[in-house]
Write a structure and sequence with these properties.
The complex is a heterodimer. Chain A is mainly alpha-helical. Chain A has helices at about 1-10, 15-30, 30-50, 50-55, 55-60, 90-125, 125-140, 145-155, 160-170, 170-185, 190-195, 200-210, 215-235, 250-255, 265-290, 295. Chain A has one domain: Orthogonal Bundle (MetI-like fold). Chain B: Pfam families: SBP_bac_5.
Chain lengths: ~300, ~525
Amino acid sequence: MIKMTETQASVPTTPKKRSIWLEVFRRMSKNKMAMFGLAIIIILVLTAVFADVIAPYEEVAIKQNLAQRLQGPSAKHWLGTDEFGRDIFARLVHGARVSLKVGIVAVGISILIGGTLGAVAGYYGGKIDNVIMRAMDIFLAIPSILLAIAIVSALGPSLFNLMLAIGISSVPSYARIVRASVLSLRDQEFIEAARAIGASDFRIVTKHIVPNALAPVIVQGTLGVAGAILSTAGLSFIGLGIQPPAPEWGSMLSGGRAYLRYAWHVTTFPGLLIMITILALNLLGDGLRDALDPKLKQ
Amino acid sequence: MLRNKKIAAVLALVLMFALVVTGCGGQKPAEQGENAVPAKEEIVVAQGADAKSLDPHATNDQPSSRVMKQIYNTLVTANEDMEIVPGLAEKWEQKDEKTWEFDIRKGVKFHNGEELKASDVKFTLERMLKSDKVAHIVEAIESVEAPEDYKVVIKLKEPFGPILSHLSHTAASILNEKAVTEAGDNYGQNPVGTGPFKFSNWQAGDKIELVANEEYFEGAPAIKKVTFRNITEGTNRTIGLETGEVDIAYDIEPIDKDKVRNNEKLTLIEEPSLSLAYIGFNVNKEPFNKKEVRQAINYAINRDDIITAVLNGAGEKAGAPIGPKVFGHNPNIKPYEYNVEKAKELMKQAGLEGGFKTTLWTNDNPVRVQIAQIIQAQLKEIGIDVAIETLEWGSYLDRTARGEHDMFILGWVTVTGDADYGMYALFHSSAKGGAGNRTFYENPQVDELLEKGRTSVDTSEREKAYFEVQKIVVEEAPAANLYYQTQNVGMQKGIKGFRLHPAGHHRLFGVSY
């Protein structure tokens, strides 16, 4: 009995783990839309990583040149210049850095907090579950963008506060997802077995439950990055996000809106880029969900 | 099933009507514009914010003043050339240094039918003195007496030179005692004045409607109905003018000006206003306690760039804190020139060759945010690393009043057109904080000169004092004065008789269409 459970318990963790992810990727690679999304995300990540090589920050991205303001696309400025004569292409490239950073860190924060709360609630059940989940329900009742606005106004606008605000405001959805997975896992035999051999609650949750509950979190996380980028753009649009002169897609959009009738390119390109990024992340998220769902495979 | 079909048919009809109606809406005003029928009696005025209250003692903001100007009259009025002319007072006389006597116009009727009496004036000014929003405008007044029905005697605490300018402020509009008492707390939504237009209707956040006062003492206005519309986005005000749904639009955005100017159905009028835009330094804080640093920043700012790029040319470089239209303006003071070398040298003298880090606060006004970004880039040239912080208007005012800032951008409108209003609040040590002196500047000599300018009634003596104050505050530079804003109004070609008032609250009496 003991022997059997040991082998069973170790199955989903170490040896087969790599092959599971390979399998998921293989399945997803059949989904063209998802691969398209993935390709765009990879390009964006590379752009963000090599932003300084593509366009130097100090010399191009934040360098004002008031004599050349609001110029249309040309060979010198591929996507034109903004209201301060800065190169829009360079700013979009550096904006990718900010957007991806905020997106990933914010989702990381919500997974960390939401996941922990959800796991605790699901694993222990009863009163603890009730208290945590009712608190989450209250959170859910507040529109997340409003909550983020409130947090940023209270803490003051800065990159870190922005990530924190967006992260915190989407905690409840992760708590719910993790709790649901934990509830379904909690009563399965391999958990019972782990408990029987005297594993601590902490070990059971971290070693056995969390890895098995990861799939839906990954899917939600991918979609969440898209939401976070959109929230960042929204908060920057109303002046609560990244502070100037740092380039950020949302603030570029907001800066150009007064010139919409005279210089279309100032708002159009950041808008397009935001749209493409969100679309790519959503396609990837959908693809991952399908690939990770064993029922859909058969 | 039959029922569903009926509903569908009704919906289709509604949709068709909606299309037809909106289609017409787009066409009609343009046609009218072409025919240019002179006898149009209704005008729509668009401004960027709704009034807060129409009780002159409850608020002191421009959008409200612009509406109140049409409803009320003041004892004396500053006309478009900033000359003091009779208003509700036919004539006035200074009895001694501290006593002024006003003869009230006879037969003036309030909109509720009551006749204007000296007791109303007494009531108004006494009520004003109790207001926490506007009492400072008339704080020089000791008492108001109404010895006869048409005679008012105002006694001052001390001699106060600019008293007439202050009484011409829209906040000193004369109210009817009975109307105020009857309306109680709702007076702000039920204003009763003596002006050319009567209040008729207010849809908060959207529009205020006024109708002509046929019994107005200067004659019945040509326009019978005025609608003040609240159109926040500047672009939308311009579009409103173009489509013809707006007849007069206040504050056309700099970028839209050429569009209005080049439209053959529209006119744009532009004139200097009484407002100044400036960067204030917190002189209590390191390193802004050093005069050299403040001067260095003044030299490092390229004012021409700001005026061209942000204002599209709608401003004049500022040297002195009060503009050329304000009484007491010193024409000998030139704006700081743009000179990076000199700025660097001054930084060196202050021992800050390596520069320093600081913050620049602004509220979320798009023009100010843009100026902040340009200044951020310009100060980088002399090694000052500026972080911009955008604050919400309420907390911006509170926190700058408490002195939590390093640098901030603000404007100041010298509404009364007199140097006292323009400089006492900004530079007198007693006005530190919320009253206006957010740089926390203190200089006994400036205090003394400002007091002299305020208490003296001899015009040339006052002027001399103010000339001196401007020389000192520009040299000591507690602020970097940026520009005097040019104000503009766009309107339909058919509008006649409209004149810009330097204080920004334009009179619609005398306008015809």
